[in-house]
Amino acid sequence: MPRQAASSRTSNGAAPAAPAAARSAPQKAMDKLGLVRDIDLALHLPLRYEDETRLTRLCDARDGETVQVEGTVRESRIEARGRRQLLIRLGDGSGEVLLRFLNFYGSQQKSWGPGVRLRVRGELRHGFFGREMVHPTVRIVQDDTPLAAALTPVYPTAAGLPQTYLRKAVAAGLARAPLDEVIPAALLPRTWPSLREALDFLHHPSPEVSLAALEDHSHPAWQRLKFEELLAQQVSQLRARAERAHLRAPSLRARPQGLLDRLMAVLPFQLTGAQQRVVAEIATDLSLARPMHRLLQGDVGSGKTVVAALAAAVAMDAGWQCALMAPTEILAEQHFRKLVGWLEPLGVKVAWLTGSLKPKMKREQMAAVASGEAQLVVGTHAVIQDQVEFAKLGLALIDEQHRFGVAQRLQLRRKLESAELEPHLLMMSATPIPRTLAMTYLADLEVSTIDELPPGRTPIVTKVFADSRRDEVIERIRDEVARGRQVYWVCPLIDETEASDQAADEAAGRASDRRPPLDLSNVTQTHQELGETLQGFGVGLLHGRLPAAEKAEVMAQFAANTLSVLVATTVIEVGVDVPNASLMVIEHAERFGLSQLHQLRGRVGRGAVASVCVLLYGSPLSDSGKQRLKAMVETTDGFEIARRDLEIRGPGEFMGARQSGAALLRFADLQEDQALIARARQVAEVMLREHPQAAQRHAARWLGAKSEYLKA
Ligand code: ADP
Ligand code: MG
């Protein structure tokens, strides 16, 4: 199916300022679809086509076929028995067909009377009274009314917007849209049509064309269009990168025997080779007088936090402040404790900022940040809210960056850009981004990869069980906790996305406990069940709706091993780090996405003891459910998981609306069109170098108002 079908993906240019009342229903529907500028209309491509270029004789048509026939009305009557309907008997000399209308106007019956010539199009069926068509499209014709010269486009549309209206609007938009060639011809394959030709063709293909080539998008007209789109994206990303190179940032260098060295000295472990390498990459970036824009990716448990801490040490040693932002309060709190533990003995003051702080406390923390007394601030996205002012922010660290929404990332950008010298930015993610995605979405990002786990870890063994074996699993838990180990039990809960919920709550000035109730019965029941069966061991309960203080308390008890079992929702998905936990049970594992399962599993296998992850499934498994669980059993490598996830879900969903905002591609497909992506990348580089104005025009034509999002 063509990818522009989802209306939410269509772009929106600057909407004209016409008052809503003055706009007709179809116009409003067009606005909603983002069909505002002529170019938007020209780029609104058909979902499929109807062939109205020829007539089929009734004697040649087969049942089940969709055909266009022309004939004379022999009889027209209204059937009153049962459901009222209009029945028309049409003959074309070779046979007859009954047209059946369940909804009709009186005027239609009148004008479609006996003797009138009709051209109708619909699916032939074998009905009770012989052959029939239900609700065909109907046109009154004369003997010499010409047939359509081109295939008739069928566009993605919305309620209140009839195809005929949309067809006219698109045809008019297409005729008016400025589609002059912007890309120098030398940079394009000679076999491709021009943009104007490609669009004219895709809207109105000639009847000889192979419908297959149109539908699978392999036709040169499609290639041209997809290339245009990819080129716009590459240009805008490369430009963002070039612009960044002109921005000024503080040059941050660690002093010999300074904070960095002192922190290294107190760490309870040796850095892995991969950690040393990425620390060096980051340190080099920080020493430059332009802002770093780097993604640190590494599988769950690869040790990204300490790398962040070391980067922060460099910045603070150079006399600048750092901010560390995490998507959930639990994770932020854990970072806070860890960093306070490492850094306060070295004389660093760490501030704490989240949405759930009491106003007085929040004011104090903000004052410490504004005065520069706190060199480091840790928290949720509250850290980047407008009221928060930094004395001298030099480095922003974003943990699990893919969990932040587009709005939050734009807010961060604005915050960073408002500084006199732009701060450096380091983003961290345990969801490795496959190469094609990295090339298209993150072309303006440097990437550092930790490709090695700290030594001494025993690989996690993953097992899949039907829920009917729950009792066995609980016995296994008993063994584990009896040996002093700890266990997570995770239950699914629909849509418990803390980061975005919290953002919405805080934006609306709501306290988080006033959010609508969620169905927590699964997690509370399991908590009760395990509490009763595992008498003598502490069983805790953790979910997003608990007050922040209680969440923190439960986490602290689990970290201290006062609780042996933690029954939780996915609030523990990201980053939670309790090395003594050696068993993870995921209930209804079939309901989780693959990367989420991998993240959850990453909560165990963090210490030296051999760890096990048990995936329980309840309902019969769907195909993709099976594939996900199988992938989990077969590999613990995050990069392999990401690759399979991309394969199972496709790139659109993989990135998710949250990840990519409106920047999702409409026409190109990241998997199918890898060769086009590579070509677009090359051409973008040449155009920016040799034809900068054309490059600019091209990006503006394609992206319009969307280009903002590409920066997020
Ligand atoms: P992630 O990359 O998933 O954020 P963390 O930073 O939470 O991983 O680190 C996982 C665990 O590994 C933590 O307990 C951390 O202290 C520990 N760790 C990190 N680096 C090393 C290392 N080089 N040697 C031993 N343990 C390490
Ligand atoms: Mg982490």
From TrEMBL:
It comes from the Bacteria. Coiled coil: none annotated. Residues 1-26, 501-520 are annotated as: Disordered. SMART domains: DEXDc, HELICc. GO terms for molecular function: 3'-5' DNA helicase activity; ATP binding; ATP hydrolysis activity; DNA binding. Its EC number is 5.6.2.4. CDD domains: DEXHc_RecG (cd17992), RecG_wedge_OBF (cd04488). Residues 469-652 form the Helicase C-terminal domain. Residues 14-26 have a biased composition (Low complexity). GO terms for biological process: DNA recombination; DNA repair. InterPro entries: ATP-dep_DNA_helicase_RecG, DEAD/DEAH_box_helicase_dom, Helicase_ATP-bd, Helicase_C-like, NA-bd_OB-fold, P-loop_NTPase, RecG/Mfd, RecG_dom3_C. Transmembrane segments: none annotated. It catalyses: Couples ATP hydrolysis with the unwinding of duplex DNA by translocating in the 3'-5' direction; ATP + H2O = ADP + phosphate + H(+). Residues 507-517 have a biased composition (Basic and acidic residues). Keywords: ATP-binding, DNA damage, DNA recombination, DNA repair, DNA-binding, Helicase, Hydrolase, Isomerase, Nucleotide-binding. PANTHER family: ATP-DEPENDENT DNA HELICASE HOMOLOG RECG, CHLOROPLASTIC. Belongs to the helicase family. RecG subfamily. Plays a critical role in recombination and DNA repair. Helps process Holliday junction intermediates to mature products by catalyzing branch migration. Has replication fork regression activity, unwinds stalled or blocked replication forks to make a HJ that can be resolved. Has a DNA unwinding activity characteristic of a DNA helicase with 3'-5' polarity. This is ATP-dependent DNA helicase RecG. It comes from Aquabacterium olei.
